[in-house]
Task: inverse folding
């Protein structure tokens, strides 16, 4: 059994001082690429599905794909995480599907744009914890808001996380992990120039709440070569800059343990498919373009696992179970 609570993966990352990549998936090829990379570099991994991914796969298909990944890779420690859940119903759905971790993004109202008040965020996040912990399921909350757009999440304004508020938020909600706003951004069109991240916020919050694992959202690097590859064969994506890998590594040194990556794998897949259609316009067999796209995703994920420091760490500890986590939470 390799499906484990995300809390265990992140607690071990804290002990080891490294970051664990959390990669979004919507279909079989993405899941296969992510898990293959974890297996080949001997890394634990977090596979994320947004509420949009749950709709796209009609729920049960994603569940069965994940079950297949676990069965096919029994030695890899995998956490299945709900990304940007924005209401308690989707949290319950994810738990029923067997997710080992859920995010309740209470930083925004259900429209995905309007920032919530601190009190409202605390209330809905605390209720998510009350639902999830009795099942042994990890809970990630968010305080502050990011720029950009992802899965219809587009804050009307950017609000960096206040470290003192973070302490109160953790105490009032009981979350296991906290996504902090430090100037990163969702989506492909992140920045016109190299961003200056507020990594001092990470360092300060890590010192104030050392038992809560910090999360960096919007952390795709959007390499120029991927944008160029997409545009080379008919694309019209503007030049953009993402979060440099070196900045992520600095964030990890200051306390980040979970690093969310989505756009980079999408760009790699899209660039590959565009190239194949350009070079072989007669191609019609999906296996002939989805297979190479899967390989491109694998290369990105493998590189990020090495860069974040999780490569070689999968065998450092024995996996626990949701049942064991129930007992831990009950005794907390």
Result:
């Amino acid at each position: 059994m390799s499906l484990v609570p995300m809390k265990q993966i992140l607690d071990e990352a804290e002990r080891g001082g490294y970051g664990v990549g959390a990669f979004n998936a919507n279909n079989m090829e993405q899941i296969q690429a992510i898990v293959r990379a974890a297996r080949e570099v001997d890394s634990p991994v977090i596979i994320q599905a947004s509420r949009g991914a749950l709709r796209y796969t009609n729920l049960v298909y994603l569940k069965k794909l994940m079950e297949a990944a676990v069965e096919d890779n029994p030695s890899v420690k995998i956490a299945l995480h709900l990304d940007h859940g924005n209401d308690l119903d989707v949290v319950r759905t994810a738990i029923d599907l067997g997710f080992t971790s859920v995010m309740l993004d209470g930083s925004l109202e259900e429209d995905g744009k309007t920032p919530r008040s601190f009190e409202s965020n605390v209330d809905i996040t605390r209720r998510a914890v009350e639902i999830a912990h009795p099942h042994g399921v990890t809970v990630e909350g968010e305080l502050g808001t990011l720029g950009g757009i992802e899965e219809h999440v587009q804050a009307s304004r950017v609000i960096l996380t206040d470290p003192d508020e973070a302490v109160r938020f953790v105490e009032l909600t009981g979350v296991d992990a906290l996504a902090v706003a430090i100037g990163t951004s969702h989506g492909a069109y992140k920045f016109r120039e190299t961003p200056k991240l507020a990594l001092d916020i990470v360092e300060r919050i890590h010192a104030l709440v050392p038992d809560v694992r910090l999360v960096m959202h919007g952390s795709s690097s959007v390499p120029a070569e991927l944008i160029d590859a997409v545009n080379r064969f008919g694309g019209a994506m503007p030049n953009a800059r993402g979060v440099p890998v070196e900045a992520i590594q600095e964030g990890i040194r200051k306390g980040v343990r979970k690093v969310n990556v989505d756009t980079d794998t999408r760009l790699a897949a899209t660039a590959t498919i565009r190239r194949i259609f350009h070079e072989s316009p007669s191609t019609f067999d999906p296996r002939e373009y989805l297979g190479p796209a899967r390989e491109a995703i694998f290369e990105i994920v493998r590189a990020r696992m090495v860069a974040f420091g999780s490569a070689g760490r999968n065998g450092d500890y024995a996996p626990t179970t949701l049942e064991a986590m129930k007992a831990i939470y009950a005794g907390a």
Remarks:
- Residues 226 and 267 are 6 Å apart (CA to CA).
- DSSP finds 13 helices and ten strands in the chain.
